[in-house]
User: Fold these one by one.
Assistant:
Number 1:
Amino acid sequence: MKASITPTNQQHQIADTDFIVSKTDLQGRITYANRIFMQISQYAESDLLGTQHNIVRHPDMPRGVFKYLWQELKQQQEFFGFVKNLCADGSYYWVFANITPDLGPDEQVKGYYSVRRQAPASAIQVIAPLYAEMCAIEQRAGSKEGANKSIAHLEQFLAEHNSSYRDLVLQLYKN
């Protein structure tokens, strides 16, 4: 069970050369975490292994983004996105995440690999207000409909910008 952590305004920067790597089973439980993940998140390996990956989910992250992420993964698609994660001490860090299905010899998904790197500040300036609005929509809509309503807002935003989520985040990452 995730301990109650009070978020702070302290941000950790990830070095340009750092890659945060983890692997999960089909239910999102961590089966592997590299040392950089442990260092940045401030969790020991024993605290991470077997724990849901959402142990690092920051409350500023809309549930709609994670619903979208799982929709993509269930279709055996790669997910690219920006994620704000919570450290054990309440501080946070932004990442550009790439999550891919881990296929077994029978081509069936047996888990997921996630590689995260530093998110550009210019991308965070665009994505943070969008995520904040999605979170506000989720709060107003309540737990039952919140994620669906925030995805609808995201889809409207993307339509107005003539983009897909993947194209948007890849473009923001490159700039």
Number 2:
Amino acid sequence: MRTMNWRERISIGPDVCKGRACVAGTRILVSVVLDNLAAGLDWEDIRHSYPPLTEEDIRACIAYAADLAHEEVMLLSDLAPA
């Protein structure tokens, strides 16, 4: 299984979207794509709402999030309610 190289499709720069990660060549934030997926929208619904997006762009957003998840370690005690 080949790992998606999200760096080819996700851009982060201080002059675009205030430095937040977005799909390259657009102002569509990665967080917006992920929020839509988390809300249960399917890929076709998201692509309908954001016509510039391709299936590969959505996969890149997921791969970007997966990489971020690998970077942060949270202790279970940090997740317990206060």
Number 3:
Amino acid sequence: MPTVKFLAEQVNLSPSYLSDLLKKETGKNTQEHIHFYLIEEAKNGLINTDKTVNEIAYNLGFEYPQYFNKLFKQKTGQTPMEYRNLN
């Protein structure tokens, strides 16, 4: 799973400066952008594959599928299975 530190290193910025810069330009910090990306990838996996929720979570870099489920529900208002069943 990408981290703020990893992304900052890729663009030769400090993690806090990268977050501040993104916040100023987009209204979202680096961690929010990472979460958005992960949730969008998860949505694609839930709709376009037959992989289990746990497989999708592991493929996205989540060590614990429970954390993935919690984050997904927090960001979408639905569990991954609810999202899959409604789409």
Number 4:
Amino acid sequence: MTDSTRRVASAAAVNTGLLLVMAATAMPLFGVGISYIPTHRGYGWIYALGALLILVGRLIRPSVKEQPLRVKRLVRMELWTALIFITGAVFIFTVRGNDWIAFTMAGGVLTVYTAIMLTRSEKKP
């Protein structure tokens, strides 16, 4: 698999996963559910699928061995962000309450931060 193919597949998986996480987070806020999926009215499974896609997308990303140390750390932070979303999915199914929303917020903030900082570090010579 070439680097450009890996980059495209990684971006597609991460973007789809983030959209699924966003949709699953909005479902209980707006009172929308899927009636034929009994567990958590369906949003738990949608969230878990999105978190898994984010993790897969982060794992298949091309290597950054030649990049500066800052970029390597930001890419590593992106992987931890995916693990935070996975933890949120686990909390949906195991803990009663809304603790999973805290993990979703933390993952979202870190995702935005790493996206901004990676863009800034790529522009510098």
